[in-house]
Write the structure tokens for this entry.
Amino acid sequence: MRIALIEDYQDEARSSADWGSLPAGTEVIAFHDHMEDEDALVERLRDFDVVVGVRQRTWFTRSLLQRLPNLKLLMNGGGAAIDMVAAAEQGVTICTLGGTNTATAEQTWALTLALARNVVQEDRAMREGRWQTTVGVGLERSTLGIVGLGNLGGQVAAYGKAFGMNVIAWSRSLTPERAEEKGATLVTKDELFERSDFISVHVSLSDASRGLIGARELGLMKPTAFIVNTSRGPIIEEAALLAALRERRIAGAGLDVYDVEPIPHDHPFLALDNVVLAPHLGFVTKQSYGIFYRHAVENIAAFIAGAPIRVVPPPAG
């Protein structure tokens, strides 16, 4: 059996799990780059039985799956990047891989603190020989607005409370009781954008959430407010966010996710000084990778034994 570990950017996959525990004759090959071109992906992956992806970095479309006849088992950190109907038709088993929710919540807070205290700007200034060029803002007594108060949003709410912030939240399904359990107060969507000093986005990407935050919502924000997105890029309309940042209608943004990943080298975000950027590091920790790739080894061993685990069922109908 041949196994491809794709988009292993940091060359961590092989050292993060015991691949040697798999049956003799199993070949494991890691690739450390991202491929967008379908023909190139087919050329790389067509001889592999198993592909281990990382979150939603590579999209396995119907067209791609149909050109990988040897593929039997496909894994990533979530099925959102896989055409599940096409996979079922091709007889490809889909398995999930775990990680740690705290990693993304911690990344959210890293971006929040970097924005509040101008960490990136001051680091650059010091390297250029300058000292104390900005004045930051404190978090205590400010208002943290959380869009989506699930597991991740709840962890971020706890961080906000620990820093003495007033926490408010909104989502379509959030109830006052659920918000209170997480230490937050339920408000309307408009009220959240109007009142918040910091806004953190924690909803899953779907047809309903794509473009959930657009020019209207950004227009409600205070000119001193910041927005942080560690969820998925398309939840915030990119053009609207770029315009708000360029025109200084909001104070800044902390972004870990983008419409296109890796972000293009000429992307306008890269030229702005009021945005802190990270290359989708939310789940990228030693601990999370350890769980992620250990699950991959367990999934492959179980599949070889004829009793697959962590299987995503094919779509109904």
The chain has two domains: 2-100+285-304, 101-277. The chain has a mean pLDDT of 94. The domain at 101-277 is CATH 3.40.50.720 (Rossmann fold). Residues 286-304 form the longest helix (19 residues).
